[in-house]
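Margin note from the TA: students keep mixing up input and output lines. Inputs are the sequences; the output is the structure of the whole complex. Example:
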Amino acid sequence: MTAAVSPGLPAKMHALVAEFVATPGAVEAAVAEFGSPAHLVFPQVFAENLARLRGQLAARVAEFRICYAHKVNQSRAFVVAAHAAGVGIDVASRAELDSATAAGFTPDRIEVTGPKGEALLRELVGTGVTINVDNLWELERVAALAPPGRPVPVLVRVSGFAGTPVSRFGVPLHRVDAALTLLAGARERIDFRGFAFHLDSGEPAERVRAVESCLVLTERAYAAGLSPSVLNIGGGFRQVFTADATAFDAYVHALRESLLGRGEPMTWGGNTFGFQLENGAVHGTPVFHKYANTVDAERMLAELLDTGLDSHGGRALAQVASENLLQVWLEPGKALVDHAGITVARVEFVKETADGSTVVNVDLSRDTVTPADQEVMVDPILVPAAAPVAGANRGAVGVFVAGRLCLERDLITNHKVWLPRCPVPGDLIVFPNTGAYHMDLSAARASMHALPPKVAVTQRSGTFRVCRDGDYRHEVA
Ligand SMILES: *Cc1c(COP(=O)(O)O)cnc(C)c1O
């Protein structure tokens, strides 16, 4: 098979990241200094993503706040970049709160979401951070713990909107009256700022319904004598992984054919990726469908803000928020780090397995480049070793990439990927766009392997600089 006709899943890359990867010796120098494998983060790309979302909001709503959802990546450089840009931050643990504070975030720019226990709530009340309350127990505890004379800023997260799958998070709509009663009776202790929601799916229609519900609740809150001023629409703005939707579709078509026994085998160990095989046909939605998305976060946000609300005579969401003097808050995570991180590993060896497959073994494990149990449908990039190694095969080759754990399941790709030539020991493999959850969500220290170091890469006047993520400092451009 030649490179031109091999199925491929080319990655969309930011120009700055693509230039870094293509700069001879640049990736090799980074791992020579910090070790392989390594995660590389690009705070300038983060800042661009942020500026784009901000531009869409500024063009439409009077008052808004973007809170970077820290949990998407543990990188300090991203937190520093968010701070430098003047936005807020959404933290979901004590450690994330410390990280935000260390980067300079003051309490008025910090929102705390996620499930919180008694110990964390005790630390939060009185500090001035906004607590995005998940449930009635939290709300009662905040009211009980609040120090006299310093009302705790609170958002109430709600869930259970029509047509939305049940969520473990949030106060269900049918219990919101209990929350309002509590809030109305605790005005000296709780500064109720408004309603919040975060949907798992990112489906635009679901979000619009949730917004309409929150607008109704906001009116109910006013009727109860409260004065909410925030509408928090959560995160979930999508990433675009693919550089070529047609190639993506062609790959998936070939994959489906291979599941039916037509053409070359393309999956490891009989994996069907959530497809169902019935009566000689392939049905269902694959687990990896998000990698096919082509609508970026900026467009998703713009379209959301422009959506006419049936509940408000078709007036645009942005207009309704402004008319009601509601600040629009959002908590994007993955949208801000989209294209702002890559992971580099080194090829240790290449082998053939009993079924004739070629398996490329690298020095990291699946959990450090893959969020939870997903299959990442983005081609890795082969970066040849600095010194050309004798014996490198010529021509495209379909391989599976395997990790360094002695577990059968430590396959980094369960789908076949085509590389321009067969890798050899010493080559580097770059996994594109790993910044959102891929690096940090599931990473474990199995077999006592250390977690990969994190390295920040910046470009000034055409020159790349790398430093330890923890040492990153913001410089005014
Ligand atoms: C995870 C999370 C986010 C960020 O979600 P993304 O999909 O990364 O944008 C925002 N808000 C809350 C409450 C979350 O739990």
